Amino acid sequence: MRRRRASLKTGRQRAARGSFVAAGFLASILAGMALYFLPAIQVALRDTGQANTSLGGNLQLKPVSATEHLSSTAPFTLLLLGSDSDSKFKGHYLTQSMILTRVNPATRHVTMLSIPRDLWVRLCTGRYGKIDQAFLHGGAQCSIQTVGKDLKVHIDYYAWIGLQGLVSVLNNLGGVNVTANNPVMDDYYPADLSGGSPFDYERILVLPGAQHMSGSLALEYVRARHDDAYGDFARSQRQQQILIALRAKTKNLSLADIPSLATSLGSDFQTNMSIGQVSGLLPIAGSVPLASITQVVLLPPYTSTLNIDGQSALQPNWPLIRSEVAKYFPAAA
Amino acid sequence: MRRGLILIALMLASGLAANRTLAFMQTRSGTASLVDTTSPQVRLPGTIFVSQEGAIFAITGSKVRRLPLPAGGDWTQPRVLPDGSLLAVRRFAQYSDLYHVSAAGRVISQMTSDDQSTANKNLQLDHWILWPAVSADGATVFFATDAPKAAPTKSYEVDFSLWSASLGAAMSIGDSGVSGATRWSFPDLYTGGDIQPVPLPNGSVLYSSYTNNGKGSVLSVLGLQTGPSSPMVSLTSLHQDCGSPAVAADGVTVAMVCTNSGQTASLEIATLQGRTLSAPRVLVANCLCNSPSWSSSGDGLLYMNASNPDGNFGLWYIANAGGVHPGATRRVTDASVDLDATSAAAWLDR
After folding, report:
1. Which one of A205, A263, A290 makes the best mutation probe of the B interface by having the most chain B beta carbons within 10 Å?
2. What pLDDT is attached to residue A61?
3. pTM for the full model?
4. Beta carbons of A103 and A287 less than 8 angstroms apart
5. What's the first-to-final CA gap in chain B, in angstroms?
6. Testing the interface with A: which of B21, B27, B210 to mutate, by most A Cβ within 10 A?
7. Residues 6 or more apart from B111 whose CB is under 8 A from it?
8. ipTM, interface predicted TM-score of the complex
9. Comparing C-alpha atoms, which of B142, B245, B161, B250 is closest to residue B199?
């Protein structure tokens, strides 16, 4: 009897010890994985809607969840914003790039509409100015509010990226393959990422034709505008080209790539999407066929040149623009 | 006690292993130097010169060697002269220069000196010189340069125009043009201009000319000029958006890359008939094709292409490309090699 009790006690001790050892291994493996994903977790908490689904201010974005949009087949509208985020702006950024994007996961159709940065609009502040100033006055929420009200469109999400973030992400992905339309030259290209004075210039030249572009070459391609017959419009077209080229990259990404991407973005990325939604967007982007991408650039007659308050701007032809926008984007409620 | 320590060590090792396994699962897209791969995968006669990461490589038979050119800058766009020597561009961050080098990689002469910054701090006074080409007799060199600039320190305008000079002539590129050279073309401003000259046996020059279509796009046509400053004849339409011309040894078979105003390109072939071009036929459709070049004596065609939208740019070959029944497309370089797709291969097959 005593022997049986001792045997039972030993069995329980062994089982407990076994459980302890198994738990130790499991904890160690989970800790190793958690450390690997730490940069992504930090970005998720700091820069995405994981911690902040409500943007505050005058505009209350409808909080959205992954199940509501990205894991379902419901279409959604995303405002992509890009800024010169170098030191000369000291954190007060304009948005040199604004691309309103409609994604329909069910039909695998994407529409990209570039909004010219010089468009003269009523800003979220109530005053008139170039649309690129909206971000300066009130960050992404002001940009969303301004675009939403002026173009009469509902926006679900935004994603903002700075120059260095774009270069780092493209480099992290190994660059992109792009067919450059024409020789893109600029003798007054800002030398703000070269490490010297952010007010210096440099000469750049992107050769025409199909080629592999590193992050910095791709940035030159989408940013140069001085020696261009269509200036900002042409660069908007080139920005859309790079986005389309990026789509090929997303096909090969895995979960294991997320931490290095998050690290490369640093503080040069903000969004109100959760990290789950961002990662859910990648396979959708990768599955969209080239023929299912509609590109819109608001050239004349949608816009015309305007000199106002001592600056050159673009006068919107609202009836034409809103009619075009309504073809692809749902109206604001 | 000892067993406990071993267990803890094993636990830590399993955590590290999990971490490193995830790191290993990251997508990698590395590229390899041409000399370190199984290239060439197709053995072609003669010697082929290509550019990769700022160096020029020579592929002869099954062997690849890197030309021992001086360090500094990126060496690109080699062209073979009839005597087997090469013209090559040495590109720096703000300017480029044209060099005459031997097939072994020894500099014979530096033909231009476009870095003005030592004498003048305005880097807008620097110049690009690119796309060298040579006449059939090897006596005349053609190129594109961004000179002249109307007002380099006051204007944003900078576009390529075409020039020619005798091989060995003393040339100097400045604000007003190229002294010692003859100007051929006058570009459509703010488009990038005229590039990629191809001298024809009859003295004419074929090239890519970028034009503003007035509807929001800059597109390319194949232009033909019979002499310096003569009017350009457009051989293709703006809608076809064709460029990167290469002419076979017969002087009339033209390879070109056209986008047909779409997102992808196609490699096409047409025949030059005086001042017109026959209807093109597509050799490779929906590709990332660029920089076609012909064998110096036959109708073998080389071109750059990435086999998929995310792939490396390699050298590809089509036998009998000008014939009625062209051969299949074959990749010459290993898939791990990423070549400079904007630099056409130079092929001396004799």
Report:
1. A205
2. 36
3. 0.87
4. no
5. 78
6. B27
7. B87, B97, B98, B99, B100, B141, B171
8. 0.92
9. B142
